[in-house]
């Protein structure tokens, strides 16, 4: 059984390779059971959530990710998410590899965000606004720049110093980036608004979104979490990564309860987009929304890339 630490997991997962791999995985068929979700409560500690996410495919691989989410970690100076991934031979059950689940999760989440935008954002979308400064948020400019001509990046965070530090990091990486001091003004100017936070109250308001903009919601994954208000879905064409989002995403549940979105109005999933079973953006002025809660299929596709890259290296 091989072990892939963070650098070894990261190396094969550049977005020019990972986004097309996710597109191929969604277009193909795989078995992805519903995730197991467990609330963790211990005396004197913050509440956490454990997700167990399996998937397997005819390509011969089986993967299981365990992911621990503890939002209170930010006060301790720790990431809010820790994950491990085990890849198996699907034909024999033999363990093949243990991989850094944090790196895998962050990169496949950013890649899925970019994959959604490749169908739903305007072809000339160039101004990206990122909400959040965590592990996933840090990857979003590179991910979106692999599918759209991004030449200006803004970042907003509830802690301004965090946004300023991340903007400086992006500038060092070659992006034209700056921290946004006002969220409303930044949203109004953006072609793509990408939210990667653990927010439990809406951050983005529908009346701020410009005609032709694309709203990307990839942070929340439980009914108690939400990054956008109900008006964000009013008059927009809404897509999801998987149908599981309709049961898991607080934004969607709120919008359905408020009547600004009906479940049967959701336009399609990533699989339907990748297979050409539904159309993406239909016009320059329409607003689009992509809501993702994550899929074990994405993890399996990314882990398979890591494994195949290692196997291709001469001993």
TrEMBL record:
InterPro entries: NAD(P)-bd_dom_sf, ODC_Mu_crystall, ODC_N. It comes from the Bacteria. GO terms for molecular function: ornithine cyclodeaminase activity; oxidoreductase activity. GO terms for cellular component: cytoplasm. Keywords: Lyase. The keyword Flavoprotein does not apply. Coiled coil: none annotated. It is an enzyme of class 4 (lyase). The keyword Lyase applies. Its EC number is 4.3.1.12. Pfam families: OCD_Mu_crystall. One of its GO terms (biological process) is carboxylic acid metabolic process. Belongs to the ornithine cyclodeaminase/mu-crystallin family. PANTHER family: KETIMINE REDUCTASE MU-CRYSTALLIN (PTHR13812:SF19). NCBIfam families: PRK06141.1. This is Ornithine cyclodeaminase. It comes from Variovorax paradoxus.
């Amino acid at each position: 059984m091989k072990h892939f630490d963070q650098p070894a997991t990261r190396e094969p997962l550049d977005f020019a390779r990972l986004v097309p791999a996710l597109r191929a995985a969604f277009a193909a068929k795989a078995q992805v059971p519903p995730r197991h979700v467990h609330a963790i409560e211990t005396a004197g500690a913050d509440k956490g959530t454990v997700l167990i996410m399996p998937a397997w495919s005819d390509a011969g691989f089986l993967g299981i990710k365990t992911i621990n989410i503890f939002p209170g970690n930010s006060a301790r100076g720790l990431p809010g998410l820790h994950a491990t991934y085990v890849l198996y031979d699907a034909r024999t059950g033999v363990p093949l590899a243990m991989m850094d689940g944090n790196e895998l999760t962050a990169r496949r989440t950013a890649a899925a965000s970019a994959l959604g935008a490749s169908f739903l954002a305007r072809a000339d979308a160039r101004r990206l606004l990122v909400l959040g400064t965590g592990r996933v948020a840090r990857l979003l400019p590179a991910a979106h720049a692999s599918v759209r001509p991004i030449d200006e990046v803004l970042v907003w965070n509830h802690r301004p110093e965090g946004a300023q530090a991340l903007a400086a990091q992006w500038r060092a990486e070659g992006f034209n980036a700056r921290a946004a001091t006002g969220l409303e003004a930044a949203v109004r100017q953006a072609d793509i608004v990408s939210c990667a936070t653990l927010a439990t109250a809406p951050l983005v308001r529908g009346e701020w979104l410009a005609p032709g903009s694309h709203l990307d919601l990839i942070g929340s994954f439980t009914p108690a979490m939400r990054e956008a208000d109900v008006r964000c879905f009013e008059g927009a064409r809404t897509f999801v990564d998987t149908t599981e989002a309709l049961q898991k995403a607080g934004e969607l549940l709120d919008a359905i309860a408020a009547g600004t979105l009906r479940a049967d109005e959701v336009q399609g999933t990533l699989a339907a987009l990748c297979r050409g079973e539904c159309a993406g953006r239909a016009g320059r002025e329409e607003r689009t929304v992509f809501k993702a809660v994550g899929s074990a299929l994405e993890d399996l596709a990314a882990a398979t890339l890591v494994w195949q890259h290692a196997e291709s290296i001469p001993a």
